[in-house]
Every structure is written in C-alpha cells, then in structure tokens.
C-alpha cells in the first residue's frame, strides 16, 4: 500500500475521531456537524468525477438523457456533498437530484449549482461538444437516505423511482452495519431496468481497518449481486471485484453489466478506483 502523506493522515484522523465512539443512529448528526464546522474539505474533491464524465460522454445510448417516452431521465446522487456530480449530470441533460442529510450541505450545493449551471467549469466536460443544448434541472433534497420520507417538493407519498443513481464516497462513509440498508434503499429508488453507477473507492484500504472511509474491496458485488450484507473481510477478492471461493448467489436486486478501471479518476484513488455499472432487476 502506498504511504499516506501526513496531511492525509491527519484528515483521516479527524474523520475517524468524529465517528469512532458515536452510536450509528447519530452518524447523520456527525456528518451535519462536520458540514456546520466548515470541515467538508476532509472529503471534498473540488470537481466532478472525471471517471463519471468520461462514462457519461462515452457510453452511448445508456447515457442518453431521454427515456424512450421522450422525457428527461431522473438521476439521484445520495450523499452528494457540494453536488459536483449532480451539476455535471444536469449539464449533460439529465434531471439531476442530490440528497444530503446536512442543511449546510444543501445550501452549499444550491449556491454551487446556481453559479455553475450558468458558467460551468471546464472539468464538467471531457469534450466541450458534449455539453447539452438542453440541460436538465438540478434539485437538492434534504433527507436521510435510509428513511423513505424525503421532501420531493410536490411529489408526496412514496419513494420516487429514478432512472439512474450514482454513488461515490457515500457507501464508504457509512458504518458497515448500514451497508445492507444502502443496497436495499438503492433497490427501492431505482426503477426496474434502471442503472446504478458506482465509482468504487477506497479499494486500496484494508476493509478490516476502521473508517470512514471504509475499505470497500469486494463489497459492492457482495451487496448488490449476491444480496449479502457487505460486511466481508476483503480477503481473496479477485480482479473482478468478486470474493473467490465464496458460495456465490445472485439474490441481490442488481445484475452487474460492467466493471472497469477508468482511464481518469481522482488521485485519492491511487490508481485503484473501479467503475461498476449495475442494472436493477
Ligand atoms: C464522504 S462525503 C461525500 C460527498 C460527495 N459524494 C462527494 O464526493 O463530495 C459523504 C456525504 O454523505 C452525506 N451523508 C451521510 N449520511 C447520509 C445519509 N444517511 N443520507 C444522506 N446523506 C448522508 C454527508 O453529509 C456527506 O456530505
């Protein structure tokens, strides 16, 4: 494993200390406190995901922002932080929603989106031609991903189903005991046939070490495809992200259609980030 810089170690220590002795039911307030104390720099990457930009611009029909009925596709980014990926998806034509447990994060994301939708930074595009002539909408929702009572601004009663969802550093931020709930909630909010995209991080970190961020090597497959609890030890994980010698099942809500190393990703991934795509069964 590569050596951590002292800055990264002290940042990691701050995150670990925030959650070390906090009961799991209070983790949401732990995240809100970090936002309120102006400490989002502990995880904020400062730009949209280069790996997601390349995927959206390169994967053809899968990322057509229109449904076959001709309406715009709705995309959700749970635990969206400042909303970089939400804005990027809207600039590529999707109606994009970001969900955040922190009021402060929602306000920061709304301010960010207000400026970026009219004057987007270059990092939103691999190819400037990919900018949609008909951008989608951006909506930030305040809510707990594990509770189905988000405010859908005029769409009451029940969970809205999305055409697509994206996860980066949300699954690795939550306590391992909540992983099954994460997979269950993803299964509830994505339409049958809809897509779940995960930029898997951190894969270089031993899953037995404390988080956040929690090491996720092998976790996505275990949760989403095998329908297990995701609390694996991270040993014997093959290059395909699957646990070797496990009694494989396909009891999960998803089928994996792609698992690839992105050409570009954040440097924090240390060259190990993997991009996976799942279809809701
Ligand atoms: C590590 S940060 C990642 C943020 C963002 N994905 C990014 O790449 O910048 C995790 C985020 O999840 C949010 N969060 C934590 N628990 C949540 C929950 N139960 N529901 C919604 N958001 C949550 C936190 O407030 C935080 O902004």
Which structural class best describes the helix and strand composition?
A: alpha/beta
The averaged pLDDT comes out at 91
Give a list of the ligands. S-adenosylmethionine
Low-confidence stretches: none
CATH class: Alpha Beta
Strand percentage, roughly? 15-25%
Provide the helix percentage: 25-40%
Here the CATH topology equals Rossmann fold
Number of helices: 7
Number of domains: 1
What is the distance, rounded to the nearest whole angstrom, between the alpha carbons of the first and last residues? 36 Å
Structure summary, number of beta strands: 7
* Fourth CATH level, the homologous superfamily: Vaccinia Virus protein VP39
- The helix/strand series, from N terminus to C terminus, equals HHHEHEHEEHEHEE
Largest sheet, in brief, is: 7 strands, mixed
CATH architectural designation: 3-Layer(aba) Sandwich
* Shape descriptor: globular
- Calculate Rg over CA atoms: 18 Å
Structure description:
The protein has 281 residues and is an alpha/beta fold. It has one domain (46-280): Vaccinia Virus protein VP39 (Rossmann fold, 3-Layer(aba) Sandwich). The protein is 27% helix and 17% strand. The protein contains seven helices and seven strands; from the N terminus they run αααβαβαββαβαββ. A seven-stranded mixed beta sheet has the order 3-2-1-4-5-7-6, sandwiched between helices. The longest helix is centred in the middle third of the chain and has 16 residues, at 103-118. The chain starts with 5 loop residues before the first helix and ends with a strand. Bound molecules: S-adenosylmethionine. S-adenosylmethionine binds next to helix 2 and strand 2.
